[in-house]
Design goal:
nine-stranded mixed beta sheet, six-stranded mixed beta sheet, 21 helices, UDP-N-acetylmuramoyl-L-alanine:D-glutamate ligase, 3 domains, alpha/beta, 531 residues, Protein-Tyrosine Phosphatase, Chain A
Length: 531
């Protein structure tokens, strides 16, 4: 075969390499969003259609055409043009959570590229192998991740050991916070209130894993920090225990037990067991835990309370709570809250002001104030001075008010039914105050498991009662929500993504309106791509 005859195939081969380079980056973006967990990623391959469609269909069409028309060498050029067009289209994809190029990501990417290069040779044996090569990319990424796991585990353990040594050396008073929801907001409130007793270190955002905390401790914990607040997330029973073994907290807050993340745990009972691991650890070492009184209905907490009555303190509006919320009134957009330690005289009440929206922040703040009081009773008189300046937590019912624009309520990081309803209630109140419309934009709630349809039906009914416009994002994922909306009472819109929804809202919302962006989902859940 002459060089001229080989050239079209060489162009095709080069285009296949370029296509693979781009597709590997695309798939890695989703793989990273699943935290490099191959078992979770397998489900995403089907759910988000992370298998090839366009190139496969296009190449099949070319193969069929060549059976009727002798395309000759030019057929390879058509195939190459197809792959280049798809790769260029894919490079233009925009993600809400972009690929973060860490050292781990680089290792996985280079090994995946090497594996891709090896199987690429199959196309030299028979052109039909191109279909296998194209479809293999997600599996090559998982294989590369598996091959690198021993090295990665060794690297991770070195970082973890370094962070644990730093904690033992600096010896800050460590506080663990967990719960089905409200962890991050409570962490921020506690950090600002506890600052009345000394310098506080805590991880930003929703960092709540061993490796996430490890990095922050290694890079940012200072010897002058008196307190360290560790947010603790869980993916199953045992997750919190591993975090406790790492951080060894002396105090604890459990914010709530609810149906958020039942998809991970299987049942609320399992969630209660998992979250109780924090209280179990703290009480075993003689420390104190603060929990909502209502979660005593879950056996693990009731048992721990019975075993350690002086160490597990309850907070709530119930009259038999250890710290009773006797007052919570909204005064000029601020909560005026009073707590009464059970059995104490009236003049021992703890009073403070909280400038955060949402009924749920009454309990979140009360848990934080009570723990501060338990750690340092002398700070009780100073709590009010610190609480009134608590800053809004980004993306958690954050109020954004710009002149000439609708009021925005950014609740993008909410992911539970109670918080959803609280945010919608705030939306209605503020819209009424401004004389405008209440506009809800939401993709629903994630990780509800078997409760998905029931919860979304309730949320759809609630939204109908409180909203003027509802924009449902990726409606196919939340059919129960959309079907529960009453078109006679609320204007219903559907859009594929948040970007589309924002464009829609900007077209019809005016400065009197209030727009609630309720919850946000990663690319894995919001939008199904066509690769």
């Amino acid at each position: 075969m002459t060089f001229i005859a080989q050239l079209p195939f060489a162009v095709f081969f080069a285009s296949l390499i370029g296509f693979g380079w781009v597709r590997i980056n695309t798939i890695l973006t989703y793989f990273q969003q699943e935290e490099y967990d191959s078992s979770r990623f397998l489900g995403a391959i089907v759910r988000v259609r992370l298998y090839d469609s366009l190139a496969t269909v296009g190449l099949v069409a070319l193969a069929i055409a060549s059976a009727f028309i002798d395309l000759g060498p030019i057929g390879w050029l058509f195939a190459a043009a197809l792959l280049v067009a798809i790769a260029l289209r894919e490079r233009g994809y925009r993600y809400k959570k972009k690929l973060v190029v860490t050292e781990r990501l680089r290792r996985i990417r280079w090994l995946t590229r090497s594996l891709f290069g090896v199987i690429l040779m199959m196309v030299l044996i028979h052109p039909i192998a191109v279909f296998l090569i194209i479809q293999s990319i997600p599996f090559l990424i998982m294989l590369a991740n598996r091959m690198l796991r021993p090295m990665q585990e060794q690297i991770n353990q070195g970082f973890v050991d370094e962070a644990m040594d730093k904690l033992k050396s600096y010896q800050p008073i460590t506080i663990g916070i967990t719960g089905s929801f409200g962890k991050t907001t409570t962490k921020h409130i506690l950090a600002e209130v506890l600052a009345s007793a000394g310098p506080v270190f805590y991880s930003p955002g929703s960092i709540n894993t061993v490796l996430g905390l490890t990095r922050n401790i290694r890079e940012k914990l200072q010897r002058g920090h008196k307190f360290f607040i560790a947010e603790m997330g869980a993916y199953g029973i045992g997750s919190i225990k591993r975090l406790c073994d790492f951080a060894d907290p002396e105090y604890a807050i459990v914010t709530a037990i609810g149906d958020a993340h039942t998809e991970r745990f299987g049942s609320i009972d399992n969630i209660a067991i998992a979250k109780s691991e924090l209280v179990e650890h703290v009480t075993a070492r003689g420390g104190k835990a603060v929990i909502p009184h209502e979660i005593l209905s879950h056996k693990p907490f009731a048992d721990l309370r019975k075993a350690h009555p002086g160490l597990v303190k309850t907070v709530g509006q119930e009259p038999d709570a250890d710290f009773v919320i006797v007052k919570a009134e909204l005064e000029d957009s601020n909560w005026a809250i009073e707590l009464w330690p059970q059995g104490a005289p009236d003049n021992a009440r703890i009073t403070y002001t909280l400038p955060l929206l949402g009924d749920h922040n009454i309990l979140n703040s009360a848990l934080s104030v009570v723990l501060t009081f338990l750690i340092s009773p002398a700070t009780a008189t100073r709590i009010a001075a610190f609480s009134k300046d608590v800053e809004q937590v980004q993306h958690r019912l954050q109020k954004i008010d710009n002149p000439g624009q609708p009021l925005i309520l950014d609740d993008a990081y909410n992911s539970n039914e109670i918080g959803f309803k609280n945010a919608v209630s705030v939306l209605r109140k503020l819209a009424d105050q401004r004389g405008g419309r209440a506009i809800l934009v939401t993709p629903g709630v994630a990780e509800l498991g078997l409760e998905h349809d029931r919860v979304h039906h309730r949320l759809g009914t609630f939204a109908t009662q409180h909203c003027d416009h509802v924009v449902a994002i990726n409606p196919a994922r939340i059919e129960a929500f959309v079907s529960a909306l009453d078109g006679d009472k609320v204007e219903i819109h559907t859009r594929a993504s948040f970007a589309d929804a924002r464009r829609l809202v900007s077209d019809f919302a005016d400065e009197k309106d209030v727009v609630l962006y309720e919850n946000d989902l990663p690319d894995l859940l919001e939008e199904t791509r066509l690769l």
